[in-house]
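Run: sequence + zinc ion -> complex structure.
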Amino acid sequence: MGFPEDAYRQYRLAMRMIQLEARTSAVCAWTRFTEGRVRRLFRAYLRSANRPKLARHRGQSPRDASVFFRTPQLRAEAGGLAAYYSLLGLLPSDPSQRAARALPTVPRGETLCYAFELYTMTVKSPRISFEHAILLLTALARGEEIALQPCRRCSALIIIDRLSQLLDQCLYCNPSLAVVPTANEVSTGTAVRDHTSMPRQLALFEPAFGDGSSVSD
Ligand SMILES: [Zn+2]
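>> structure
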């Protein structure tokens, strides 16, 4: 299939993703290489000289986008990374399940790596792994839980929780939002932060599976 040039780009992308510590399944999805081939590439990489130390992640890729609201730093960094996605044309104009499924291609994989590399170069101690960067892009392309949009007050581009009307402001405009749980955390009871000091904020919450009014627009 394809021209040798395409095969070379696939190979280059696979090596780049391996160096960014992507899981085998992710490398397969974006390069269309088989699992066996990716594993062979990884072993070859380990044998190569002067390679930087590399962590190998096992198990499933991360799936829960509420992780980006866990701390103010994570939310700010996710916003910065998502802004790169937007600038580089990675975000579909019409987010949907379908758009998210159609995302993995070799050219977009190259752009994704580039965006992530820009992010790691501009943040002193990056907290978002490459696997979480893929999750961020996929969740934004799906557009169900999170979105990149201007802060309601100051217009800074931020990540918002689409299921919670509280998280549509940036943390500079409303520092108290740092402790507000995401709608997903409320529905699953997995909030890891202490928000007991914010009873007034909690009382404002929309039901997690309501009529969808907080999701529209
Ligand atoms: Zn703001």
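>> summary
The pocket of zinc ion is lined by residues 151, 153-154, 156, 169-170, 172-173 (CB under 6 Å). Confidence is low (pLDDT under 50) at residues 194-217.
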